[in-house]
Here is the input.
Amino acid sequence: GFGFTASQAQIAGARMAQLSGVFGGRQAIEAATGAGMQFGLIGGMETGDAMQRLINLHQQTGTLYGDLTRSQFMMMDAEEQANVVRRESARLLDELNTIENRSAATMQHITHVMNQFASSGQLAGDSISFMAAMSATLIEAGEEQGKAGRALRMIYARLGANTQDNNKILNQYGVSVKDAHGNLLPLSNIVEQLADQFPNLT
Here is the structure.
């Protein structure tokens, strides 16, 4: 359907088929394989690289399960699983492509950065769109992809571990890093608070 040769399709299918324990039945694997091919075509990547990026993002965030847990996904029948993967992969590609179109960063660069910190962003409750936007912003600012990913991973780590009491310091400037239950707020929320306080800082 995407104009690939038989051998290219077999290679793509073989890579995705290794994740049968993640995606369940054959139909879901076929849907994920198609998503990987689309990812490569839209993002200007080799199919193998695109599929690896898609797999890494899903492994870190569970994005292709949508709002479902892995257990809920696995309880569905094969056609339902495939429909979820099709829907969520289309949503993911749309979000990434929108950010790519509005920035100087390419989808290839954005996902390279994201794959270094997405699991931390997921734990903090940040959306894929916000993670992609942060990645694109740092790339546009001239940061190398590897440095940008490590920097964002370090930010999440410092907030989560309260390194050198930085959360208390942020609180002194009117920035809350945890909710009423003591859970770490999404970085998107923290950055919004910082944006409000920056004009008042020396």
